[in-house]
């Protein structure tokens, strides 16, 4: 309710607030039991990738600020050697900075758990303060705190380990300061104008601005929620004043709110500009989603069924459903019966609609009816969100407010019930009941039932464990400075979250990483030609790492069109400061197939020779080998995209896939180099255009007879992308009656090499 009386107290009830915080802390411990007994090696997250990513973000903020003295919004530690921008990702800068003492003293896992408890307890306390201010009823505040912080709508973020989402503490406090600030700017009741004070305008305006800044640097979703609440409540308050024709006061509200949000706008603007550029430039994947998953409408009434698939007749389902329906009923009663809070009811309806996704889903059945996600998917930047059901987080705050008001109405009805008189009680107990005992007793029972009825589902304790880091990363055996090249490079993407967790211990740059929106140059499924990729970072497809990235599909062969010698590979790895090769034998818990393992082992053997003599560590999980220095720095040529595997008949040759193929080249110094190769045109004469980094160098004529070519190139130090293109359409042998081969073929290459010009 915005139209409430102004109450300025000279002293805060510290002991009461301390008791409230301890109450919510006890509930949080109960909900997560026995986590408090294993704070160092367990978390509530049972989905590991997001948990490990949040570990990494906390660690990286510490490294960036304390060690590198640089912005945390770019890191050279992932997607090495180019690094990646982090502006688009939720780094939780606020929480990471505030928890630095905990991280420095106790480490990452305790810091994660600390911030998790701060989010739950702080969020519940904030909701308590908000509803207590609005209703002057502490029991309603306790209920609101439980509904907001411990509702089932918060459970997915808990179990996914999405620490940034579970930072619930800022939003209710921001809403509280915003409401107080609006009342000081211009009370809706003109009779309260005499209570307006410049001192309190400055205090509440400053608090509103400060908490909005904290939200802005916590998570983009929470910033979106705070923006929604600001616009909704400020507009509602402004309209009420305009209807009273108080034009001067309306102008003051508009200016005051503008000044309150200005610090957040100015401080977040550079990051917002970077984020908007990245979401619209095509640098990252999943930034323009046509289908955005949303909430099941059934989760509004029976959230535990839609979230955890409980059956309707299970005892747990019944208790959860009845408790949540009671909360919803209290919220509805509050909106209907309590004067002036319909703005909260309207806000709840809008938030629920926003959460429903692209189409309406009801208890698992997709009706196909278009919802808000259909429109959001067409709005730039907004269509980069992954899950619209997260709008239920501010909705839980709103229903907490509404249910708090409903509880106040319920208590007023209890006062008309003469329980002590009906039971013919006497003495002090009767006096207690007649005063406020019935309300206290009833609220105590309801809070207890809510806690029991909304407690999380039992989870296997083993699912909460944080797996230990491999001993090789903590033992100090890896003394050679430099980055890690971790194989297989094309493993399923989520597994790379574990690499980020290992990095917290070894502190070395790694070749990949797990981020919610992949840099487009790292996405193997991308159809964009490598040299056309709109990336400001390192382009793997334009480097010799492309061959390693696609090792499984390109098939490293003992006899191939390019002879990858140890010295050439060592030259490239040494130039880029790769110190170790690490081969993981398991892909997300599943053992690598023999074919994949042997293919990756061939890469390592090309670099170090025999793994028995050239590697320093091996166990059942991994193989670690140091990169030896080259005898002499040499150029390197490898296959990139656009090639079939090495031919099995004849050996030492590869067909270009269709009309074009790419080669990745590395040269250790600026100068002249010679690209040499043999080429055979398939079925007819063909032209061959050679481009370097998108610029045409020469056009050659080929025919079905084998021909040798040499092309002199002026190349600068580093990586280059060579494109081979034949404008004539490729032909299929099966259509020409030559063989059963159905591949489109144009040119066959042999003896490809890049050397220093003599």
UniProtKB/TrEMBL annotation:
Transmembrane annotation, as ranges: 12-33, 86-107, 114-134, 159-179, 200-217, 223-243, 250-273, 317-336, 343-363, 388-410, 431-452
Protein name: YfhO family protein
Keyword Signal: no
Organism of derivation: Candidatus Chlorohelix allophototropha
Keywords (A to Z) from UniProt: Membrane, Transmembrane, Transmembrane helix
Transmembrane helix as UniProt keyword: yes
């Amino acid at each position: 309710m915005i139209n409430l009386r102004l109450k300025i107290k000279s002293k805060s009830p510290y002991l009461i607030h301390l008791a409230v915080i301890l109450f919510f802390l006890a509930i949080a411990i109960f909900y997560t039991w026995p986590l408090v007994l294993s704070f160092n090696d367990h978390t509530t997250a049972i989905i590991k990738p997001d948990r490990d990513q949040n570990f990494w973000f906390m660690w990286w903020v510490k490294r960036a600020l304390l060690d590198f003295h640089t912005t945390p919004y770019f890191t050279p530690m992932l997607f090495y050697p180019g690094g990646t921008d982090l502006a688009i990702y939720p780094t939780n800068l606020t929480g990471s900075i505030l928890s630095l003492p905990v991280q420095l003293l106790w480490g990452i896992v305790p810091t994660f758990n600390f911030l998790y408890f701060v989010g739950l307890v702080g969020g519940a306390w904030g909701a308590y303060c908000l509803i207590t201010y609005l209703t002057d009823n502490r029991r309603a505040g306790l209920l609101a705190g439980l509904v907001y912080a411990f509702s089932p709508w918060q459970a997915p973020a808990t179990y996914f380990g999405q620490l940034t989402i579970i930072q619930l503490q800022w939003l209710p406090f921001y809403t509280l300061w915003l409401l107080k600030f609006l009342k000081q700017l211009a009370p809706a009741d003109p009779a309260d104008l005499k209570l307006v004070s410049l001192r309190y305008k400055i205090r509440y305006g400053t608090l509103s601005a400060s908490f909005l800044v904290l939200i802005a640097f916590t998570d983009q979703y929470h910033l979106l929620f705070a923006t929604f609440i600001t616009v909704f409540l400020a507009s509602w308050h402004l309209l009420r004043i305009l209807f009273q024709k108080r034009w001067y006061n309306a102008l003051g509200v508009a200016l005051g709110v503008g000044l309150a949000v200005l610090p957040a706008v100015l401080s977040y603007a550079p990051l917002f500009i970077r984020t908007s550029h990245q979401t619209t430039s095509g640098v990252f994947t999943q930034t323009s989603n046509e289908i955005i998953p949303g909430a099941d409408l059934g989760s509004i009434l029976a959230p535990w069924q839609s979230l955890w698939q409980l059956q309707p007749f299970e005892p747990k389902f019944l208790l959860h459903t009845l408790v949540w329906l009671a909360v919803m009923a209290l919220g509805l009663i509050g909106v209907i019966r309590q004067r002036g809070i319909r703005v909260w009811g309207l806000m709840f309806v809008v938030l629920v609609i926003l959460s429903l996704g692209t189409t309406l889903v009801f208890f698992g059945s997709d009706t196909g009816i278009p919802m808000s996600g259909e429109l959001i998917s067409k709005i730039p930047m907004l269509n980069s969100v992954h899950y619209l059901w997260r709008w239920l987080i501010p909705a839980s705050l709103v229903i907490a407010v509404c249910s708090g008001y409903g509880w106040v109405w319920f208590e007023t009805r209890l006062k008309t019930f003469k329980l002590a008189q009906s039971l013919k009680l006497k003495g002090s107990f009767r006096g207690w009941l007649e005063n406020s005992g019935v309300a206290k007793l009833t609220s105590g029972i309801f809070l207890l039932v809510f806690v029991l009825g909304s407690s999380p589902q039992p989870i296997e304790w083993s699912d909460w464990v944080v797996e230990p880091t491999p001993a090789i990363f903590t033992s100090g055996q890896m003394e050679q400075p430099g980055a890690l090249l971790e194989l297989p490079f094309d493993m399923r993407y989520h597994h790379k979250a574990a690499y980020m967790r290992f990095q917290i211990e070894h502190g070395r740059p790694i070749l990949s990483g797990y981020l919610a929106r992949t840099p487009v140059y790292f996405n193997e499924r991308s159809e964009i030609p490598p040299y056309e990729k709109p990336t400001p970072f390192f382009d793997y497809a334009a480097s010799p790492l492309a061959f390693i990235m696609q090792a499984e599909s390109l098939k490293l062969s003992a006899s191939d069109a390019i002879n990858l010698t140890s010295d050439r590979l060592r030259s490239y790895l040494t130039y880029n400061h790769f110190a170790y090769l690490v081969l993981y034998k398991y892909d997300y818990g599943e053992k690598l197939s023999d074919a994949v393992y042997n293919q990756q082992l061939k890469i390592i053997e090309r670099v170090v020779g025999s793994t028995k003599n050239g590697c320093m560590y091996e166990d059942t999980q991994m193989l670690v080998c140091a990169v030896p220095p080259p005898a002499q720095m040499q150029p390197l040529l490898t296959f990139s995209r656009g090639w079939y595997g090495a031919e099995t008949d004849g050996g030492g040759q590869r067909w270009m896939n269709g009309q074009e193929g790419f080669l990745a080249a590395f040269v250790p110094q600026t100068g002249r180099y010679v690209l040499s190769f043999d080429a055979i045109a398939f079925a007819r004469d063909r032209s061959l255009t050679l481009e370097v980094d998108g610029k045409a160098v020469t056009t050659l004529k080929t025919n079905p007879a084998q021909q040798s070519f040499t092309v002199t190139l002026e190349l600068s130090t580093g990586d280059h992308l060579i494109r081979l293109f034949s404008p004539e359409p490729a032909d299929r042998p099966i259509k020409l009656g030559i063989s059963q081969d159905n591949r489109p073929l144009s040119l066959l290459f042999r003896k490809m090499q890049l050397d220093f010009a003599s």
